[in-house]
Design brief:
The complex is a heterodimer of chains A (625) and B (284). Chain A is an alpha/beta fold and 625 residues long. Helices cover 25% and strands 27% of the residues of chain A. Chain A has 4 domains: 202 residues, P-loop containing nucleotide triphosphate hydrolases (Rossmann fold), CATH 3.40.50.300; 89 residues, Translation factors (Elongation Factor Tu (Ef-tu), domain 3, Beta Barrel); 103 residues, Elongation Factor Tu (Ef-tu), domain 3 (Beta Barrel), CATH 2.40.30.10; 182 residues, Rossmann fold (3-Layer(aba) Sandwich), CATH 3.40.50. In chain A, strands 7-15-11-12-14-9-8 form a 7-stranded antiparallel beta sheet, with no helix packed on it. Chain A has a 6-stranded mixed beta sheet with strand order 2-3-1-4-5-6, with helices on both faces. Chain A has a 6-stranded antiparallel β-barrel with strand order 16-22-19-18-23-24. Classes of the chains: A alpha/beta (625), B alpha/beta (284).
Chain lengths: 625, 284
């Protein structure tokens, strides 16, 4: 039963192989076109002095008629006797790959159109490959322009064989391979006399025989948190159920994080009160406990939670203009989670023509490649085989979406750090007051705000001003100043590489304890080595917020508040960051504050804005209404 | 609200099977509205008073549990049918909308009207009127009720569609949009048009209006054998022959008719590509 739901199909293939003609025909022959549309297009063709083409129906834009290319995807509906369909036309021109993805990604099945004379082109293969990547398993191959080869069986067999072989390489079998003439309407909506030797289904019959994607409601519950609203006394968690079902009273676990609570109620407006919901529904729910929940987490059943991981093997299709290389920073989006990430390695690029792989240093535009990606903090993820929704995502660079991907493997499942030495005999005692209780009482979350930057960049000044202002606002904030701590906690440490590492580790451990106790630990400490800060990030996870206080070395030296640069230049300080020791600036800090230009007040404003935005009940949107 | 002890009235399997195409459309639109609310800093909803934007307001109340947590913008050309303005005032109160009415006073003072050219009039009073409201209020995103099935150029749209500073739409190079990963991050100066009804059809809209009991201007219903199928300015909006005096008759009529919806809109007919030029210039 289709419940009136239109079955979405994509129509793909090489430019000029006749996709739009096929669609124009399908629409016309199933009576889906508005009255007068064909007449108007015939008139427009006459005015332009060109013969009428069925593809004009889809190529509604003037520019397309002029260039003879479909520029973007469109969706048009038609119905067979069995069920309604929505067709997604996809442009075949290679430059318009991102538009093809936009269209085809929404489809449950596809028709791959191949010109019987030209056969499978690189473009045809690329589209078939992408359909596979998009998770579309049901493919009808329409071998078009049979009228141009006199409906010759051997010409059809050649193309049909090549298509089957290529699809087999992708572990796919065509649902049907049909000889058609889109121009003449042969074997599309009606079985026609041509070609006489063919006794398989028409395109419409083959469509009606497709099963469609399996019901996501039958898979484990995945409810990505979209937002948390507090319009009134209710704290409503909203999101769309991507798979599975839920019921009021069920216990949910939120990943990453792993906190859990029961569903107290399902909330809605102007709808029948419900106690259950299933895949496809946008829901709102309240919990029986006030646990911390934020956008990007995924609610699931406690015994079937998706793993949280930060190293992933991806198969991606790249459509960015600039090549993608190992070491490149990207933004990762899986489900509704967003993370800073790095391409750790480019493993191989896939050759579309013969499906072989080659090693490559860079991923070019329109390449399909296997990469290892490192997410800065863990994200709830599954392999594409395990879960449709958490097994795929996109990469963004700057303001552009540059790639879509499937998760081929989860390379880590982060575990608690192994406890070293004799410490394993100790029994850690956790606080009597859980973090959620503190943040509810204090109105903000706990966190570590690590100000890094050159000596003289303004870290301590900014940290002091922030501590004072947060205190004024009734926040729990504590300053940890690297220089001050070297007089006590770290008095035994020097400035060797190992000593600097230990210095950072100890400050990190103290800061973590404060943050876990619900406080804002403001750390002013150079921590000049990127690797030390990365270790902090790993140890502290989402608590760690790196703030790069950025000033030019030149300016810091001119400021020289503590007279240290002068001493270092005179050789009185052996290893001084910026002069004799390197400072490795953060590649992707949570926040960067340039102190060269703005006034200290402006810098503080910048920092406060971040603190308010990120640590103020991060799970609650307060509204003017 | 009342805790855990609610009995299950519907079997979950049954519930899943009961989801209709309208439920799917509603769910997707609610998802889009919530994305826009989360991602767009200064959001507004274009309320044309027509059936589509009434459905939009309704969906916003579904998404935000009875509220519309952003302003509704009506671009008033001063030539709108009087029934529309009365409806606007009544419903804005009833629905508790924060209403912003935009008007291109300068063009009206210079006497702009459809006799100067329908496309010129639309551009001045609607497109420029909207640009002015966007700039004055600093909107970074505007929700609009356009649908793919309305007209060829609208079929090319994205759900989240960026507009340059001059509100122009570059349909040649649009960002990719798949798996519900909407691109909401753009350089300063770009504002977004958000289209939660993009995948709805005219028939879907009416069936949803009927199911939910959403108020609409009664000009849509036939009087004396004619009705409005689409509402705009009085001089440029015509009626179609119809006997559909209520919503059931209207839906039955739509199920059998194949006349294009905007057929009554005179500005589209002025030149073969008139609507496309309007849209590229920033028209909704």
């Amino acid at each position: 039963m289709h419940n009136g739901r239109a079955f979405p199909i994509a129509i793909v293939g090489h430019v000029d192989h006749g996709k739009s003609t096929l669609i124009g025909r399908l629409l016309h022959d199933t009576g889906a076109l508005p009255e007068g549309k064909v007449a108007a297009l015939k008139e427009a063709s006459r005015k332009r002095g060109m013969p009428f083409e069925w593809s004009f129906v889809m190529d509604a834009l003037k520019i397309e008629r002029d260039q003879g290319i479909t520029i973007d995807t469109t969706r048009i509906r038609f119905a067979s006797a069995a069920r309604p369909y929505v067709i997604i036309d996809a442009p075949g021109h290679v430059e318009f790959l991102k538009n093809m993805l936009t269209g085809a990604a929404a489809a449950e099945a596809a028709i791959l159109v191949v010109d019987v004379i030209e056969g499978l082109s690189e473009q045809t293969r690329r589209h078939a490959f992408l359909l596979n990547l998009l998770g579309i398993r049901e493919i009808i191959v329409a071998v078009n322009k049979m009228d141009r080869c006199g409906y010759a069986k051997d010409a059809f067999d050649r193309v049909a064989h090549a298509a089957s072989r290529y699809l087999a390489g992708l572990d796919l079998a065509a649902a049907a391979i049909i000889p058609i003439s889109a121009r003449n309407g042969d074997m599309i909506a009606r079985r026609s006399v041509s070609p006489s030797w063919y006794d398989g289904p028409s395109v419409l019959q083959a469509l009606d025989a497709l099963a469609g994607a399996p019901d996501e409601a039958d898979r484990p519950l995945r409810l990505p948190v979209q937002d948390v609203y507090k319009f009134d006394e209710r704290r409503i968690i909203v999101g769309r159920i991507e798979s599975g079902r839920l019921r009021a009273g069920d216990r949910l676990t939120f990943s990453p994080g792993g906190r859990s609570a029961r569903i107290a109620s399902l909330e809605s407006w102007n709808a029948q009160e419900a106690v259950t919901a299933a895949a496809g529904q946008s829901v709102g729910l309240t919990l029986d406990e006030d646990i911390f929940v934020e956008r990007g987490q995924v609610a699931s059943a406690p015994d079937a939670a998706p793993p949280a991981a930060s190293r992933l093997k991806l198969r991606l299709f790249h459509f960015g203009h600039a090549p993608l290389r190992a070491g490149d920073a990207v933004r990762l989006q899986i489900g509704l989670a967003e993370r800073a990430a790095t391409i750790e390695a480019v493993e191989s690029v896939v050759d579309i023509n013969d499906l072989t792989r080659r090693s490559a240093a860079a991923i070019g535009r329109h390449d399909i490649a296997d990469v290892v990606l490192h997410s800065r903090t863990p994200v709830a993820v599954e392999t594409a085989l395990e879960g449709r929704h958490l097994g795929r995502g996109i990469l963004r660079r700057g303001h552009h979406i540059v790639a879509g991907f499937l998760v081929a493997a989860v390379l880590d499942a982060p575990q608690a750090a192994p406890v070293a030495g004799a410490a394993r005999h100790l029994t850690p005692v956790t606080s009597a007051v859980p973090p959620a209780e503190r943040s509810a009482a204090w109105g903000h979350a706990g966190a570590v705000l690590w100000l890094t930057g050159l000596s003289g960049a303004g870290k301590s000044t900014l940290a002091l001003a922030l501590e004072r202002e947060l205190f004024r606002r009734d926040w729990r904030a504590v300053l940890l100043d690297g220089d001050s701590l070297r007089r006590g906690l770290n008095a035994d440490l020097g400035f060797s590489e190992a000593a600097r590492a230990e210095n950072v580790r100890r400050i990190g451990a103290v800061a973590r304890h404060l943050a876990e106790s619900g406080m804002i630990a403001i750390v002013a400490c150079i921590a000049p080595r990127a690797i030390h800060r990365e270790r902090l990030r790993h140890a502290l996870g989402p608590l760690f917020h790196e703030v790069y206080v950025k000033a030019s070395l030149d300016l810091c030296e001119r400021r020289d508040v503590k007279g240290l640069y002068a001493k270092a230049r005179r050789g009185e300080i052996a290893s001084f960051t910026g002069v004799s020791d390197p400072y490795e600036p953060p590649a992707a800090p949570e926040l960067e504050i340039g102190t060269d230009g703005p006034t200290p007040a402006e810098c503080l404003g910048h920092l406060l804005e971040y603190v308010e935005r990120v640590f103020r009940p991060a799970d609650v949107r307060r509204l003017a209404s | 609200m009342d805790g855990l002890a609610r009995p299950a009235s519907i079997d979950p399997d049954m519930r899943a099977r009961c989801l209709t195409d309208l439920d799917d459309l509603e769910s997707q639109s609610v998802f889009i509205l919530r994305e826009a609310f989360r991602k767009v800093e200064k959001l507004g909803l274009l309320w044309s008073i027509g059936k589509d934007s009434n459905v939009l307001v309704w969906l916003a109340r579904k998404a935000f549990f009875g509220r519309v947590p952003f302003p509704a913008i009506h671009i008033d050309t001063s030539y709108k049918l009087p029934e529309m303005i009365r409806f606007r005032e009544r419903m804005a109160r009833e629905w508790g909308l924060e209403l912003i009415v935009g008007r291109n006073h300068a063009a009206l003072a210079e006497g702009m009207n459809h006799t100067r050219g329908r496309v010129a009039c639309c551009t001045a009073l609607k497109t420029e009127g909207l640009k002015e409201v966007i700039q004055r209020h600093g909107f970074t995103g505007v929700i609009a009720g356009i649908r793919r099935d309305e007209e060829g150029t609208r079929a090319k749209e994205r759900v989240f569609s960026p507009r340059a500073e001059n509100a122009e739409w570059n349909f040649r190079d649009q960002p990719p949009e798949f798996w519900n990963h909407f691109n909401t991050e753009f350089p300063p100066g770009i504002h977004l048009r958000i289209h939660p009804l993009l995948h709805w059809t005219e028939l879907d809209v009416w069936r949803y209006v009927r199911r939910e009991g959403i108020p609409v201007v009664d000009l849509y219903f036939a009087r004396g054998g004619r009705r409005y199928r689409s509402l705009g300015c009085a001089p440029c909006t015509g009626t179609v022959a119809s006997e559909a005096a209520d919503i059931d008759a209207l839906i039955a009529e739509l199920e059998s008719t194949r006349i294009a919806e905007r057929a009554g809109r005179a500005q589209d007919q002025e030149a073969e590509d008139a609507f496309e030029r309007l849209r590229a210039g920033g028209y909704m």
